[in-house]
């Protein structure tokens, strides 16, 4: 409640200040009153200019106060929500993928889960899982799965969903949910299929998915 009240007060003061400035500028423009002017009126400083100068001064003051507040020590944040970061990969440039994973390793969000889903499970796609293991392999709770199919395919080119498909799908979900960093190589199905795998495997185990 106090924060809402403070926000409402700031909104009111800001609106009131804007209304006063607008009224003052209009009044100064209509009256044309001048404080200082030369004999031929080549140079003059009137009420309009005074209000504009005051407005500029106040803007500079508020900007300085805001900048000082931003540079001040930040309050400790208590992050209680769980977040998973999902990456879709398809024939990625090795250097870019390696830089992407290294940047993710530097994220300090507590308990962040990372799921890399490779759209393709052929031999020529294996380098992406190798890069994942290279960058993330030194971390505990890291898992990798090569899936012959995906959630909408059994891996044999048909639409059947046999017991082997069910077991592999369960294994994928188990690895994704139990490991902080996981990589899934699956049968090619497009970006939507890759995203579906990450969403389906994570389920409701996290609060947010990015």
Automatic annotation (TrEMBL):
Entry keywords, A to Z: Membrane, Transmembrane, Transmembrane helix
Keyword Transmembrane annotated: yes
Pfam families assigned: Glyco_tranf_2_3
Subcellular location: Membrane
This protein's record includes keyword Transcription regulation: no
Origin superkingdom: Eukaryota
Residues making up the signal peptide according to the UniProt record: none
TM region positions: 12-33, 45-65
Gene Ontology CC entries for this record: membrane
Broad class of where this protein is predominantly found: membrane
Record protein name field: Hyaluronan synthase 3
Species, as recorded: Cirrhinus mrigala
